[in-house]
Design goal:
282 residues; alpha+beta; PTS-regulatory domain, PRD; 3 domains; four-stranded antiparallel β-sheet; elongated
Amino acid sequence: MRIDKILNNNAIVVKEGNKEKIVMGCGLAFKKKVGDEVPEDKVDKTFLLSNKDISNKFQELVSDIPMEYIELAERIIVLAKTQLGKKLNESIYLSLVDHIYTAVKRYLEGVEVKNALLWEIKRFYKEEYPIGLKALDMIEEEFKVRLPDDEAGFIALHIVNSQMDGNDKEIKRTYKITKVIQEISNIVKYNFKITFNEDSVYYYRFISHLKFFADRLFTEKTFNDENNDDLFEIIKNKYKSSYECVEKISKFINEKYDYTVSDEEKLYLTIHIERVVYKTTK
């Protein structure tokens, strides 16, 4: 294994074909130079990121951030993949490493950032938020600092973002998506004067649908299929109260976000609202 680039004493870049691998180990590059051989038994961690841009940015982070933060972030990412059973976008290696390092540094400096949507994150991301809490335990074990639960919410959002093919710059969009989910679910709740059963599979499906609806809103990807015109008319007449609620949502979204909700989106919103309201009131 020959050194192609030295990032710091503990991290180097090696070539594997036309791809770069980031290799880490204690003192791996100490008194070494580009072109030198490094024994593989000194390697603790290897990162092979397929996206060239993400790999370059990750190399920058590795150069600036202590190795223990990168190793901890990787353990949290492995935990998230295992718990969720889902593939996460490579960008999470950037966003999570940077966030954990910044959060710990900020906490030690006495600066605390409040998460205005913490309550909503707990409600809407019931799989990701517990991973955020477990991450706080892991951070405490590693660095002997207990970050506030607000940080568990932020970590959960990074995990949510990585499931939606978001990159490290789009966490603000995920924050906005959470806000839209809150707004729409409140319209439904107050329209039907109900309290959702948040443990229901129908509520989970409803929130999942809102998540992707809001994602389209901010990426301006309209979901439209004229083949469902007949079905839309049937659903509209069959579930009148749910459709009327969808019209309220559509009006709100148009006025606040300047986004026109398509008939296709109205169709699926009506179906999800009907299911979640029927199961809640039943």
